[in-house]
Design a protein that fits this description.
Blueprint (H helix, E strand, L loop, with lengths): L2 H31 L7 H20 L2 E2 L2 E2 H21 L6 H35 L7 H20 L9 H28 L2
Antiparallel strand pairs: 1-2
Helix pairs in contact: 1-2, 1-3, 1-4, 2-3, 3-4, 4-5, 4-6, 5-6
Protein name: YggT family protein
Keywords: Membrane, Transmembrane, Transmembrane helix
GO cellular component, one term: membrane
């Protein structure tokens, strides 16, 4: 009788712990790519938290431009491990190719989710800062560095709206369309392949 509860608790712990670490790896990878300030306390925390996994991989996998191949491989392996463990707790089986395809889909979905939340939080904080309610905040600085590569092209394309910045809304719509049209089919294909 207690088995479903135990499986649910195990699945919750797996998803939470792996999800938090994957988010830390993703944020570190993006912040490294945009050359975020390493003195920012949040960036410093992300570097310290992810170095034990990335340091050994960096000796094997080089960086390509600003992108860390070690971080990408680590995220893929950790995501596949999470999915494999979840499959085992649910009593399911899996195939290697299904696991890899589903892991790629899950990582893309994570990227969209993190960027969407970051854009929303940055927009809200910018309204507070515009009202004079905030001084320097390391989290706000980090959000600005994280979202700027997505918002900058939208701002260049959109016409001047008299001080109203619609670029966050446009980018969120594009991210959600990408999620629906590109990421969801990859995840569905992974699920089909997982069943063998």
């Amino acid at each position: 009788m207690a088995e479903p509860y135990t499986n649910n608790a195990a699945a919750f712990l797996i998803q939470t712990l792996f999800g938090l670490y994957l988010m830390a790896l993703f944020l570190r990878t993006v912040l490294q790519a945009v050359r975020a300030d390493p003195r920012n306390p949040v960036t410093h925390f992300l570097i310290r938290a992810t170095d034990p996994v990335l340091r050994p991989l960096r000796t094997l996998l080089p960086e390509v431009g600003r992108v860390s191949l070690a971080a990408l491989v680590a995220m893929l392996v950790i995501q596949a491990l999470e999915l494999g463990l979840l499959s085992l707790t649910g009593g399911g089986t899996w195939t290697a190719e299904g696991l890899v395809v589903l892991a790629i889909g899950q990582l893309l979905a994570l990227a969209i989710q993190v960027w969407t939340i970051a854009i929303i939080v940055a927009a809200v904080l910018s309204w507070i800062a515009a009202g004079g309610g905030m001084g320097y905040n390391p989290v706000f600085a980090l959000l600005d560095e994280l979202t700027a590569p997505l918002l900058r092209p939208a701002r260049a394309i959109l016409p001047d709206m008299g001080g109203l910045d619609l670029s966050p809304l446009v980018v969120i719509i594009v991210l959600q369309l990408f999620n629906i049209l590109m990421v969801a089919p990859v995840r569905d294909l992974g699920l089909v392949l997982m069943r063998g």
